[in-house]
């Protein structure tokens, strides 16, 4: 071993984390989440048509404070939409995990989606209407497109697992899942905007019958309750 001399370079020392900067970043993150929660409450109470001034007042703060934590109107909209999307996807996954057959999986997706729409229709309208002039300039950032893809991916994953367990062909599952999601979303949008609409349970049953009739005819899938070995959700 070579001796260490006085001329040997000193070992590199990793910089110590700035505790104040870390605490400030965490504070800002927590404050953003609080403001998103306040915005959701305001939308639920006062409707999807709130402007920034009305939304800030209903949330008990000022527009200036909102702009300290959100770059612009679209940034706030995207933060609200991401929160809603996470809730919907989490509830969908929970529903389909309980399904014992392809039809039950489809019914779980339809029932959960319509139930969440009915539970807070103003928040749903806020997300799907792109308020504040928010646009889909970047499809990867558009929360409505992301939600549609998440719904379709979850539907395809679930149907594929169930259809494999039932011994049916699954090569068309992804394309059919996207078609089903388009059907479900269009029906939900129209239903939630209809005066004197029927309840979510009745609508879910009718929409499930409609969707399953076509899916069963195309895939020839069995409705025998067979619990599949579901793929792990990333």
Structure in words:
- The protein has 234 residues and is mainly alpha-helical.
- It folds into 2 domains: 48 residues, Arc Repressor Mutant, subunit A (Orthogonal Bundle), CATH 1.10.10; 154 residues, Tetracycline Repressor, domain 2, CATH 1.10.357.
- The protein is 67% helix and 0% strand.
- The protein contains 9 helices and no strands.
- The protein is globular, with a radius of gyration of 24 Å.
- The N terminus and C terminus are likely disordered.
Put the structure in a nutshell.
This protein has 234 residues and is mainly α. α5 packs antiparallel against α9 and α8 packs antiparallel against α9. It is globular.
Descriptive tags:
about 230 residues, mainly alpha, Arc Repressor Mutant, subunit A, Tetracycline Repressor, domain 2, 2 domains, disordered N terminus, disordered C terminus
CATH superfamily of the largest domain: Tetracycline Repressor, domain 2
The CATH architecture assignment of the largest domain turns out to be: Orthogonal Bundle
- Poorly predicted sequence stretches spanning 5 or more consecutive residues: 1-6, 221-234
Largest sheet: none
Query: Helicity level, as a percent range?
Result: 55-70%
- Please provide the ordered H/E string of secondary-structure elements: HHHHHHHHH
Beta fraction: under 5%
Overall spatial form: globular
